[in-house]
Amino acid sequence: MSAVHTTNILIGGEAGQGLVTVGQLLSRILVRQGYRIVVTQSYESRIRGGHNTFAVRVSPDAVEAPAEAIDLLVALNDETVTLHGPELSAEGLVVADETFCDSDERCLRVPFKELAPEQFKNIAALGVMCALLGLEEEHAAHIVDEAFGTKHPEMVEGNRSALNKAFAWTAGKNSAFRKLPAADKQHRIMLNGNEALALGAVSAGLRFAAFYPMTPSTSISLTIIGLAERMGIVVEQAEDEIAAINMAIGASFAGAPSMVATSGGGFALMVEGVSLAGMTETPVVIVVGQRPAPATGLPTRTEQADLDFVLHAGHGEFPRAVFAPGGVEECFHLARRAFFLAEQYQTPVFMLTDQFLADSYRAVVPFNVEGLDWVKPGADPDSIKAPYRRHAMTESGVSPRLLPGLSKNLVVTDSDEHTEDGHITEDLVTRKRMVEKRLKKLEGMRHEVVPPEFEGEEHPELLLISWGSTRGSVREAAAALRANGVDVATLHFSQVWPLAPEQFVERLKSAGSVICIEGNASGQLARLIRRETGFEIEEKVSRYDGLPITPEYILQELSI
User: Fold this and answer.
1) What is the three-class DSSP state of 111?
2) What confidence score (pLDDT) does residue 117 get?
3) Are strands 462-467 and 361-364 parallel, antiparallel or unpaired?
4) For 354, left (φ over 0), alpha (ψ -120 to 50), or beta?
5) pLDDT band for position 50 (50/70/90)?
6) pLDDT-above-90 percentage for the chain
7) How many whole angstroms separate alpha carbon 524 and alpha carbon 397?
8) Domains plus CATH for the chain?
9) What is the pLDDT of residues 300-317, one digit of tens each?
């Protein structure tokens, strides 16, 4: 991956000023014109007020990481100028109301009151941005009309007027600001991580989803709700997370592929249910959108500190798999894989995302869904010999799973330790055999682990390890290091459990030095690798202030 040349746009203001609307509209305009984007949303836990930002990093070429230096700062309030003015790049420009800037130096002072009434001020700001970037007015107007519809003619007229006046006013001003180079115009769609994950789940055969709203996972369930009637999916907003996980387990037991989506605090309430799924060998997919903790922590910021929690959640020993998508496309594909794996091994499977990836829009080539298979729960009753035993001992540890009420066979299970036919027991010999039966499934799961992605020359001087949403930043930092003559490779984990050491341990041993880059304070993946392989990763780059890891942050911490 070579270094990319991009423009980083940051829109700042208070909640309630419409900055997310403007950011989404700008992003959609850019994607429709063929540009690649990476969106970073930063917001406080309040409906109005506070300081929020919507950053769009745009390029005609591939881009997959956020940036820190701002090329175009669009300030919807004066606080944005104060807070982010120092972050301007060498050629950066501030776009702000004429009352927010004292001078014209590096600031385009916009008379917003002359361009549009207050309710259309954000559309006027959109017009100024589009004009500066060299985007076409008619195309921008089409996207705005598409977003707001045509049911209210006065809104259409107001939006059009604000855009037109903003484009006309901006023409010829700050011509030194670099316009975007032409893009390839390949058809792409705009999706964030949560939307892609929801679509992946639906394509895999999701039939039941339960949730209790919790940032940053809520939009997964909202996306599914939007598709539920058309796709025959039942979505239940439960009274709490305890009810949500148990509803999903019950639905799955009955034969409906099921999922719950939550965050750390909500998942804490689900943990007993996770253990129930492990004991009853019921497939369920659990999405945990990470945010800074403990307790409520920073509920609208990002972190990667729940790996240990998810890995060990649930009392007792039972198998599980944990995926950590590195980008929006992987959110789709790994969600599908999670459903198939959960059904195949009859056990909980986890998706670990975070606020950054959940809310980060990207330009994605549409997924080819033609011919995709979907989960088909349960075994064929005609293949089962009587008497049916739900937890029958098998060489793989996986027992035939029949669905209750769909055959003459009686399907019995229990949350207590049970016999092969599912009835409660305290026979200690049976207990030992059942523990071993369940754990056998982990060996089968090891053979299906997604290999970590290696990029670079063999036997590098420096190997950078990443997992989850840090992939793009690590790859871009590595590209910058290579451009400066450093022999560096990257190793990215999109599945963090189970690990298959034979896939990667020789790469660790053959590198001159190994550094693990994580969004947590303690180096949770590095510790897990040491536990599973004995290889000690002594150097780490950690970030745990609530902000996403960027290429600049990595390079600064490496000081190479």
Assistant:
1) coil
2) 94
3) unpaired
4) beta
5) confident
6) 90
7) 29
8) 7-170 (3.40.920.10), 190-364 (3.40.50.970), 453-558 (3.40.50.920)
9) 999 999 999 999 999 999
Summarize pLDDT for 83-126 with one digit per residue, the tens: 999 999 999 999 999 888 866 678 999 999 999 999 999 999 99
Vertex 376: Cα angle to 243 and 413 (nearest 5) = 50
Place of tokens 């000023």: 17
Q: What would the two tokens of residue 244 be?
A: 């949500």
Q: For residue 42, list its beta bridge partners.
A: 53
485: how many CB neighbours lie within 10 A of its CB?
Answer: 7
| Nearby residues of 352 by Cβ (< 8 Å), 6 or more positions away | 288, 290, 304, 306, 307, 310, 322, 323, 324, 468, 496
Quick: pLDDT tens for 380-419: 999 998 999 999 999 999 999 999 999 999 999 999 999 9
Give the mean model confidence (pLDDT) for residues 477-499: 97
Q: What is the pLDDT of residue 160?
A: 93
Contacts of 9 (CB under 8 A, 6+ apart): 26, 55, 56, 57, 58, 70, 71, 72, 73, 74, 129
Per-residue pLDDT at 216: 97
Are the beta carbons of 352 and 291 closer than 8 angstroms?
no
| CA distances, 451 to each of 416, 493, 496, 532 (Å) | 36, 7, 10, 15
Contact criterion met (CB below 8 Å) for 37 and 4: no
* Residue 131, pLDDT score: 96
For the residues of 284-303, what is the DSSP string, one character each?
EEEEEEE-S-STT-STTS--
- Contact, 380 vs 400, CB < 8 A? no
Taking residue 439's Cβ as centre, other Cβ atoms within 10 Å add up to 13
List, in sequence order, every beta strand (DSSP E) within 111-203: 189-192
* β pairing state of 49-59 and 234-237: unpaired
Q: Give the helix/strand (H/E) hosting 539.
A: strand 539-542
Residues 6+ apart with CB under 8 A from 406: 255, 378, 381
Distance CA 120, CA 420 (A): 67
Contact criterion met (CB below 8 Å) for 302 and 354? yes
